[in-house]
Amino acid sequence: MTSSMARFQYPRVLSIAGSDSGGGAGIQADLKSIAALGCYGMTAITALTAQNTQGVRAIHPVPLKMLADQIDAVVEDIGVDAVKIGMLHSADTVRTVSAAIERHALPHIVLDPVMIATSGAVLIDNEAISVLVRYLFPRAAVVTPNLDEASLLVGRPLDNEAAMEAAALQLLDMGAQAVLLKGGHLPGDTVSDLLVTNERQPHWMRAARIDTPNTHGTGCTLSSAIASHLALGAPLAQAVELAREYVRGALQAGARVRTGEGSGPLDHSYAPQAMRLLPLR
Q: pTM, whole model, 2 decimals?
């Protein structure tokens, strides 16, 4: 029963993604990022992974009914202001998540299409990619692929900014409402990210590359930070800018830290914010 004294609620962000046992990416990175930005994080785990900073050893899918039950349980009781979607390893998993989004009319969907591991291994089959594009692209406020994932989606390599822009527009034509194409895999001292909305005007965001070996979970962190800022009420372009600032700060703060023998995590807690309070609705 809701107390008669209650006047506020937390900004609520649901992460639908895989679990990273190493703590640097997936659900774990999402929860750390959401909390650091003053929001309340919830989860619906799509798969368990056995991994560390050096790679993924095993993936165990969560049964589809359990996935749906997780989403239903948190939405029906706590509610959701924004959603981050990460690893969806099969077509049936995509369909289950899509049905839940429609069932609950979930708002502010940030889709991070996790398709390729750092090792280069493809984590999703062709049917799942097709279903992802068909069912989730139109429902997402923004899709956030890196260059490898966008290359897989459009079917060609992306090795310069002109190719990035053409690919982003193609992803809009495939049904996306907006695309944040991350250019961190391009060589050079500058990192160029591209935001394109349905107005089709390219918005380039460029910054100096941060010298760090600790980049594990960067995409998860960015997408969950975007979802957090959307939950806090920021419009999309501002949410993307603020999320990029947060990720860059986390990369810089963790650059001199060694965690594991491979690509370590970011410092998600470098500037934690107190939990924000929104008027109770």
A: 0.96
